[in-house]
Amino acid sequence: MSESPAEQDGFANFFAEELPGLLVFLLRQGAGREDAWDAVQESFIRAYLNWQQIDNPRTWIRTTAVRIYRRKVTRDREVPVDMREERHPPPLFTELDQELDHDEECRLVLGLLRGLPVRQREVMAWSYDGYEPHEIAEFIGISDDAVRASLYQARRRLRRHLGERGNRRGTRHV
């Protein structure tokens, strides 16, 4: 049996390398675990089907996953909670979930990010993944200055929250 074009050009490696990071990227943006997993799965399926046409896979997969997540959240607001089906993630995702549950720093960061406004959470997620403000501005369709302002406000707010947590514990974070 021959390999598909996607397998020949490194899709399997890309999948293995990017899967955990993509999940955390969506969680940083405020997605719940089920919604994040759904968006991750769907975006990798789309990436596989379009692999030969994708120029920047890392950026493409994040942009696609965010769009899928936002569409799902918008659609779910319209469906009564008791009509939503219960889903269980596949074993691979369960293992990653367990890793995230045991990573105290990850839980702390996700908790702090959930307290930010949506735009600040969004730019912080992109920034946390190593993207520059001009790239973020292009991906989400706002100006460089708006990205920088959101990053500044988010970082200021996070420092304040960290300071409050430290003061409650008797230590001080700067």
Low-confidence stretches: 78-84
- Estimate percent helicity: over 70%
The portion of residues forming beta strands comes to: under 5%
Provide the gyration radius in Å.
Answer: 18 Å
Helix and strand composition category: mainly alpha
Q: How many E-type strands?
A: 0
Question: In whole angstroms, how far apart are the ends?
Answer: 58 Å
Word description of this protein:
The chain has nine helices and no strands. With 174 residues, the chain is mostly helical. The longest helix is centred in the C-terminal third of the chain and has 26 residues, at 144-169. Mean pLDDT is 80; it is low at 78-84.
Could you give a quick summary of the protein structure above?
With 174 residues, this protein is mostly helical. The chain contains 9 helices and no strands. The relative contact order is 0.10.
Summary tags:
174 residues; mainly alpha; globular; 9 helices
Helices and strands, with pairings:
Blueprint: H1 5-8, H2 11-28, H3 33-50, H4 57-77, H5 91-102, H6 104-114, H7 118-128, H8 133-140, H9 144-169
Helix pairs in contact: 2-3, 2-4, 3-4, 7-9, 8-9
